[in-house]
Amino acid sequence: MGANQLLIKKAGLYTSIQDLGRIGFMNKGVARSGAMDTQSASLANWLVGNDANTALLETTFQGLTVQFQDSRMIAIAGGDLGAHLNNRPVTLWESVQVREGDVLAFDKKVSGFRAYLAISGGIKQSKIMGSRSTHSMIDLGIEKIKDGSILELYSTNSQVERSSSEFHRPIYTKHFTARLLPGPEFESFPREYMDQLTTQQLTISPDSNRMGYRLIGDFDSKDLPQGILSSGVILGTIQVTPSGQPIILMNDGPTTGGYARVGNVITPDLNYIAQLAPGDSLRFTWVNFDQADRILKNYRDRQSEAISVG
Amino acid sequence: MEIKRIGEQACIISFKEEISKSTHHQVMALLGHFKSQPLVGITDLIPSYNALTIIFNPFRVQFDQLRESISQVDFEKAGQPGKKWKMPVCYDFALDQKDFCQSTGLSWQEVIDLYTSTTYHVYMMGFLPGFLYMGEVDTKIRLPRKKTPRKKVEAGSVGIAGAQTGVYPIMSPGGWNILGRTPITLFDPTDEKPFPVEIGDEILFYPISQQEFKTILKDKKYRMEESHGS
């Protein structure tokens, strides 16, 4: 082992290589994958001078421990999973110099659920169908992260030092209110169900993952639309099972589905849902397309501002 | 035809909710339109039995531009004919042989004969990479989706759910009634062409023995035969 490598001492609960995702294969049933919290992943890459689409590590909950084999700039963004460098706390949202032999460990989740570790140069992995993103359930040939894995890195002399302003650092709490746009079958749902969807606090089920977030609440299955003829679904689609359980489809979710689709979570809010852990809570509130367009525009402006002024 | 926005970055164009070649033809005409005159900003197009979902970058193309473009589609235009494939299936791997015979009142051989006498149209791929949704299955051998899906269905498993028949390209949980397995690789992410079959192709299944199944499975260079008959 040596320069341009990274040793995974412990993989933690779940760690994977991600970029911004795989585009253009949904017609074949291939999910987009990619970083669940795009906002933090892009920022992490920017902090070390990488392009937004550079492959980085997405780690979930806690436990990931890596050892660097050469001098690099790194940055951690997203959830605060208690990162320590050689047993000393590391500051998130800014670039940090590491040297050969340094050990970075994500010891204990403090807030959020997913952290992004960007490394200057980026993880070396050949693109498969246009992307370096791992699909958590399907083996596409992207390197899996296990205890003892050795990852190749691109060589770089980059010494970019950046920090993001407090204003641009998202804050993650154990409760989030997500904004929804109506889905294709919106009008087929009974009034009672629509009330139940927005008036109660829903809990993130333990069987939530990169494919989807299953939500627990009190739902009446009376008069719910039954299945539909399978058709396309997108990131953030809320499918409703015949028993009334809503499922938010996430990055590794299916590309088509046969459950009625009540709504869609707006894009900026998916970053925050990705930071909710099982047991955390969620509420829904409806917005219209004009509002959603404005929110997306503001989100985009804020993102470009974040990577220009830091 | 109904056009609905379903997110800031997607819209769905739906036709009559049915499995029929004429409805699917409209979906394919729409798909063909966006493939031949690509609009900058469209990132993904997901065709299904009766709908096309378009995913786009709203900072590069507006929903109104898509709507305008859709108004120019010629739905009467004949589509490009798909390829015709002959796909080998070993029916000794039928996990649900008993269910098929019991609910249809037919012998296993009769079920296979009916199944292999239809040429199936590939309507869509989805849910898993390369899962083929095909139709229509002879009414005599239609079985509804299983109430409790299996936790694990082997790659290549061929199943029936109502009027639909499908092939699982990779191992996955599955709720379709399994009547055989094909040794053909339907998804290879490392191949230059990861998917041999396209939406709009036609598939005719033919029975093979377990020995033939094993031989084809081992032969990495084996390619499915195209049928050139009419």
Describe this structure in words.
The complex is a heterodimer of chains A (310) and B (230). The relative contact order of chain A is 0.18. Chain A is elongated and about 60 Å long. In chain A, a hairpin with a 5-residue loop joins strand 16 and strand 17 (246-249). The two termini of chain A are 35 Å apart. Chain A has helices at residues 38-47, 191-199, 267-273, 289-309; strands spanning 5-11, 14-18, 56-60, 64-68, 72-80, 83-85, 88-89, 95-98, 103-106, 111-119, 150-152, 175-182, 202-204, 212-216, 231-232, 237-240, 246-249, 256-257, 260-265, 281-286. Chain A is an alpha+beta fold and 310 residues long. In chain A, the strands form 4 sheets. A 7-stranded mixed β-barrel of chain A has the order 12-19-16-17-14-13-20. Chain B is α+β, with helices and mostly antiparallel strands and 230 residues long. Chain B folds into 2 domains: 2-70, Gyrase A, domain 2, CATH 3.30.1360.40; 84-226, Cyclophilin, CATH 2.40.100.10. Chain B has 5 helices and 14 strands. Chain B has helices at residues 21-36, 63-70, 97-104, 108-116, 210-218; strands spanning 2-7, 10-14, 42-47, 51-56, 84-89, 120-125, 132-135, 150-153, 157-161, 164-167, 172-174, 177-181, 202-207, 225-226. In chain B, the strands form 3 sheets. In chain B, strands 12-9-10-7-6-13-5-14 form an 8-stranded mixed sheet. In chain B, a hairpin with a 2-residue loop joins strand 1 (2-7) and strand 2. The longest helix of chain B is centred in the N-terminal third of the chain and has 16 residues, at 21-36. The radius of gyration of chain B is 19 Å and the shape is globular. Classes of the chains: A alpha+beta (310), B alpha+beta (230). Chains A and B meet through strand 15, strand 18 and helix 4 of A and strand 1, strand 2, strand 3 and strand 4 of B.
Give a brief description.
Chain A is 15% helix and 31% strand.
For this structure, the CATH topology of the largest domain in chain B is Cyclophilin
Largest interface: A-B, 41 and 41 residues
Strand order of the largest sheet of chain A: 12-19-16-17-14-13-20
SS elements, strand count of chain B: 14
Estimated helix fraction of chain A: 10-25%
Helical stretch count of chain B? 5
**Which radius of gyration of chain A do the C-alpha atoms yield?**
20 Å
β-strand number of chain A: 20
